[in-house]
Amino acid sequence: MKLPAVFGLAGVSPQEKTIAKRWAGYFEWPMVVLALWISIEWYLLANGFIKPSATWLSDWLIWGVFVAETVVLTSLVNKKAFYLRTNWVNLLIIFSTFPLIWSHFPEAGVLRLLRLLVLFSLLLHLSSRARRMLSKNQLGTTLLAVLILIIGSGFVVAALDPAIDNPVDGIWWAWVTVTTVGYGDIVPSSVEGKIFGGVLILVGIAMFSLMTASFSAFFVSEDKLEQVKHDRETLNRLEELDTQLNRLERKVNLLLREREGEDDTDRV
Fold first, then answer.
1. 3-state SS of 112-141?
2. Is the pTM of this model over 0.85?
3. For 1, which DSSP code?
4. Measured between alpha carbons, how far is 109 from 105 in angstroms, rounded to an integer?
């Protein structure tokens, strides 16, 4: 069994039906948006800007998206048991983050741990999707994925680490961490922040490697498009020349026939 399947991140198999793979693509960007939103919401909760009771709509929305994705894709794939077995993270999220369970644990500490579980599971869930999107060498998609990663990580570390006071500093820290520059002006002080930073460094190396590949593919494709355009223009010119030569040949043949006709008349 492949590594993504072991970690419950296999997604829809490439051998599955086209409609199943198409719907899997439809769910990709809602999951990315949820990952960004839940990191922002977690920061707001951790710093007391909003109360846990105010997140009920968000809780149901996040849970509903996971349920919808699991139900829709399971109904569309041929190997339903195999899909559920290789995407067990979905089931973990659905059963462990049912909003009614959260309502029975209103304590802020427990709620924070539950949201950490949701965020961690969601990021794991998105890793396979990010890998597929970035491997397509689409520059716009790659830049957007890196931007979402940096913004989301900035909010997460601001909620995790007491040494980082606000999301602006968190986003700056995430940017210099992902790029592996590491100025050292902002440094996490807690164990959780350092662990998160270590994970972000590994993710940053992978992301920027893929981004470099996307830039290379973009410029190569631009050169190819320019070459194709030049070749098409050359082909059009050759076709025009061929058309003109054909016209000229017809005119020459017509003149020769007229000349032969005049010679025959003179002989008579």
1. HHHHHHHHHHHHHHHHHHHHHHHHCCCHHH
2. no
3. -
4. 9
